């Protein structure tokens, strides 16, 4: 089929998915689609408006960064959807939609025939209509009912029960009873009831499935962060590439600038700046020299390092994070959703009621035929039609409302858990802050100096260089031809512009004494173009917009907020004071998860908001978790919800929407149960005809659906 | 009775053709992005993106 071919694609093509929150009108669609196709080696671009997602088919040589830039040139911000499996996800929704269509077709046709019977068709006409109904209904029931029968059978085989057991029993019994009535030429056939029931329940099931994403394997996402091979230095002085799993303690590896270390170890030679943020969450690169420790996954920024391995493969700190996450996820899977909790009470109740009705009528002297009819009508009338719709409809409406505000719900029980959360735990870097340094103020420089600065900034891999280049991009600084730009490991970059020497790097390297400037929350670098004096450039990891307002909103919702960070305590304390909340600093990933675990043991329901790999275990351990869409792969796949954009406000908005949703779900359940309480006595008394069953069932379902639609503005 | 002999098969035929049409639409991916579809009617035609409709998810 053509679709299969398109997904696999020709060998030199790849498909990438991007979240583009800025898509909001027809103009955006055509701008993106036609604009991107004009780019070189982009074959096709297609916007999914509902998901705010862009799907690009492109030449495999094109990197994510290049794609993001191409989208950026069209004026949109994009985040790569990291989960490649999304592309090939087998969609259970399609099967459900097909079953739903068959049920709708059959129930409408049978209903037409049933209405004729209800208004008084008699004798051979009625029998003919019943036979026609049977002819349509039986194949339709056996096709459309399969999702319920399958799930009920799985439960029964394990001696368990779920919502599908009473549903299946009800459907099968009423179909069998109706067939019997048809054969003997009786007056009551419930084919329409059985089909309408399947239709409504399938609608609920479909909505439920449309919220569910496949469980993401965050551990796989984690493994992607580790290099697959390393340059090993053998005793004879030669070096060669070896796969990571062949590394062993004692070996020496070379970690070049721009590479991530493949193992834990001690630096034996070289000096460089290390970006430890992946493992520890620190925002500031740390200087590493001989004798310092480096962990697998840490990024070497400038100079080459020789590292003696102390731990490799499964023993690295990175692998430990993976194990922690796995362990934390196990607790998570024990959560029982509200619909299932209701079903556990409901199913045995309905079955015993039907059995009692059957026995009761027998004892009271009715014939077997009539006793069965009463039992069947009890099953039909109590079938959890509205109950099956109560939860999914409300949640789907809420999820849609959240999606319009840039909040993606990834897990089907996420809203339930979010509504229960009572304490918010924030990571610092990348969560409360934007996670990237920004230049505080551009110094006024001579045009030539500005050009030299930009040239040097562009030539370095240090994150401050990139931030500097970003900040200067909009200015009118041009390029200056430089000769001999060299990166001095751990210190900075140096270049010659004509006969003038320029340096960009550590302030002390340029002869600036910065010890008396005590504000440690700022990152600093210095620049100098001889013969001018060095200038100090300060950077700051900016707090997310509306962070303070978000924390206030959370407080109004009765949620206390705290910071758990792997960063240095000075930085964390300053931020905690600025936001007026408690903060814990210098925590390892395991300690973060443990802190959350302790909170949970005390009966709290922590909401974790984090982005980094080091937050992975904590995100899984927490009762519910949120990550910014710009988070690391691991953060994205470990969290239950994602929010797009820079503002932190979506966190408070999501909590508020979740609570409103669950209030409404409970209302829906009350409506559904109240309906059953009203209808059961009628059924027990044997007064329920197929007509009454049809009316009662539709009414309660419609009421529940209408009530749920009130959630359309849940996230506003 | 004679009327019914014609009307009922006709009703069933019409219904099932609707069902078949729905299956076809589902197969060709027209239910992937309902919100987007409602907006795309305002869009000028792009013949080069027209035939890729079923690839999106």
Automatic annotation (TrEMBL), chain A:
Read off the SUPFAM superfamilies from this record. Answer: Calcium ATPase, transduction domain A, Calcium ATPase, transmembrane domain M, HAD-like, HMA, heavy metal-associated domain
What are the residue boundaries of the HMA domain, all occurrences included?
14-79
**Record key words, sorted:** ATP-binding, Cell membrane, Ion transport, Magnesium, Membrane, Metal-binding, Nucleotide-binding, Phosphoprotein, Translocase, Transmembrane, Transmembrane helix, Transport
Report whether Phosphoprotein shows up as a keyword of the record.
Answer: yes
Question: How does the UniProt record describe the way this protein sits in the membrane?
Answer: Multi-pass membrane protein
Transmembrane residue ranges: 96-116, 128-145, 165-183, 189-207, 345-364, 370-403, 669-685, 691-709
Asked whether the keyword Disulfide bond is assigned, the reply is no
Q: Name one Pfam family in it.
A: HMA
Q: Name one GO cellular component term.
A: plasma membrane
Q: Where in the cell is it found?
A: Cell membrane
* Gene Ontology biological-process annotations: copper ion homeostasis
| GO MF term list | ATP binding; ATP hydrolysis activity; copper ion binding; P-type divalent copper transporter activity
Q: Give the family from UniProt.
A: Belongs to the cation transport ATPase (P-type) (TC 3.A.3) family. Type IB subfamily.
What's the protein called, per UniProt?
Answer: Nitrogen fixation protein FixI
From TrEMBL, chain B:
Q: Which domain of life is it from?
A: Bacteria
Q: Does the keyword Oxidoreductase apply?
A: no
Q: Give the record's keywords alphabetically.
A: Membrane, Transmembrane, Transmembrane helix
Entries under InterPro entries matching the protein: Cyt_oxidase_maturation_cbb3 (IPR004714)
Q: Report TM segments.
A: 6-26
Name this polypeptide is given: Cytochrome oxidase maturation protein Cbb3
Source species of the chain: Sphingobium chungbukense
């Amino acid at each position: 089929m053509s679709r299969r071919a398109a997904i696999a694609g020709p060998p030199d093509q790849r498909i990438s998915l991007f979240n583009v929150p800025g898509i909001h009108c027809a103009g955006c669609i055509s701008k993106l689609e036609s604009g991107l196709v004009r780019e070189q080696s982009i074959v096709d671009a297609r916007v999914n408006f509902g998901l705010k997602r862009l799907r690009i088919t492109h030449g495999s040589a094109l990197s994510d960064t290049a794609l993001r830039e191409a989208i950026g040139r069209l004026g949109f911000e994009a985040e790569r959807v990291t989960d490649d499996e999304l592309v090939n996800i087998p969609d259970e929704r399609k099967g459900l939609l097909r079953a739903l269509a068959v049920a709708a077709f059959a129930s409408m046709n049978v209903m037409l025939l049933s209405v004729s019977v209800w208004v008084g068709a008699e004798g051979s006409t009625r029998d003919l209509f019943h036979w026609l109904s049977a002819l349509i209904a039986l194949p339709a029931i056996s096709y459309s009912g399969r999702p319920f029968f399958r799930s009920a059978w799985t439960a029964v085989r394990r001696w368990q029960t779920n919502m599908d057991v009473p549903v299946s029993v009800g459907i099968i019994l009423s179909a069998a009873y109706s067939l019997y009535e048809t054969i003997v030429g009786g007056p009551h056939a419930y084919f329409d009831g059985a089909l309408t029931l399947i239709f409504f329940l399938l609608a609920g099931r479909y909505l439920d499935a449309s919220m569910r994403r496949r469980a993401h394997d965050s551990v796989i996402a984690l493994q992607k962060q580790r290099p697959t091979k390393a340059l090993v230095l053998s005793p004879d002085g030669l070096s060669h590439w070896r796969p990571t799993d062949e590394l062993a303690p004692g070996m020496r590896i070379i970690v070049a600038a721009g590479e991530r270390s493949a193992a834990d170890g001690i630096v034996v030679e070289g000096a460089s700046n290390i970006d430890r943020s992946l493992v520890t969450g620190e925002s500031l690169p740390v200087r590493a020299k001989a004798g310092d420790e480096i962990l697998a996954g840490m990024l070497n920024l400038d100079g080459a390092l020789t590292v003696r391995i102390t731990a490799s493969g499964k023993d690295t700190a990175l692998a430990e994070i993976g194990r922690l996450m796995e362990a934390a996820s196990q607790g998570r899977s024990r959560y029982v959703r509200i619909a299932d909790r209701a079903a556990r009470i409901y199913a045995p109740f309905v079955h015993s009621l039907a059995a009692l009705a059957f026995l009761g009528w027998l004892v009271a002297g009715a014939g077997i035929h009539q006793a069965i009819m009463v039992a069947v009508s009890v099953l039909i009338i109590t079938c959890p039609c509205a109950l099956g719709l109560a939860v999914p409809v409300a949640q789907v409406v809420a999820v849609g409302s959240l999606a319009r505000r840039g909040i993606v719900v990834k897990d089907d029980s996420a809203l339930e858990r979010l509504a229960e959360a009572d304490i918010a735990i924030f990571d610092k870097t990348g969560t409360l802050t934007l996670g990237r340094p920004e230049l505080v103020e551009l110094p006024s420089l001579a045009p030539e100096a500005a050009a030299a600065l930009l040239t040097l900034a562009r030539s370095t891999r240090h994150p401050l260089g990139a931030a500097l280049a970003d900040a200067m991009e909009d200015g009118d600084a041009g390029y200056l031809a430089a000769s001999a730009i060299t990166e001095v490991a751990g210190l900075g970059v140096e270049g010659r512009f004509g006969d003038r020497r320029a340096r960009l790097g550590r302030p002390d390297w340029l002869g600036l004494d910065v010890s008396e400037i005590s504000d440690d929350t700022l990152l600093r670098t210095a620049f100098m173009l001889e013969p001018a004096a060095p200038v100090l450039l300060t950077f700051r990891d900016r707090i997310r917009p509306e962070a303070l307002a978000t924390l206030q909103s959370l407080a109004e919702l009765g949620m206390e907020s705290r910071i758990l960070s792997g960063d240095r305590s000075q930085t964390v304390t300053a931020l905690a004071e600025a936001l007026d909340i408690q903060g814990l600093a210098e925590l390892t990933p395991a300690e973060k998860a443990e802190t959350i675990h302790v909170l949970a043991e005390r009966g709290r329901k922590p909401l974790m908001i984090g982005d980094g790999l080091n937050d992975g275990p904590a995100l899984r351990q927490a009762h519910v978790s949120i990550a910014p869409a710009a988070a690391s792969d691991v953060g994205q796949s470990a969290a239950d919800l994602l929010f797009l954009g820079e503002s932190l406000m979506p966190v408070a908005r999501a909590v508020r929407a979740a609570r409103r949703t669950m209030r409404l779900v409970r209302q829906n359940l009350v409506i559904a149960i109240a309906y059953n309480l009203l209808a059961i006595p009628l059924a027990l008394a044997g007064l329920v005809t197929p007509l009454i069953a049809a009316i009662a069932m539709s009414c309660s379902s419609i009421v529940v659906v209408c009530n749920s639609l009130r959630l359309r503005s849940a996230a506003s | 009775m004679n009327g019914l002999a014609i009307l009922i098969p006709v009703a069933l035929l019409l219904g099932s053709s609707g069902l078949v049409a729905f299956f076809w639409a589902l197969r060709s991916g027209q239910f992937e992005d309902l919100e987007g579809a409602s907006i795309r009617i305002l869009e000028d035609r792009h013949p080069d993106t027209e035939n890729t409709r079923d690839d999106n998810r």
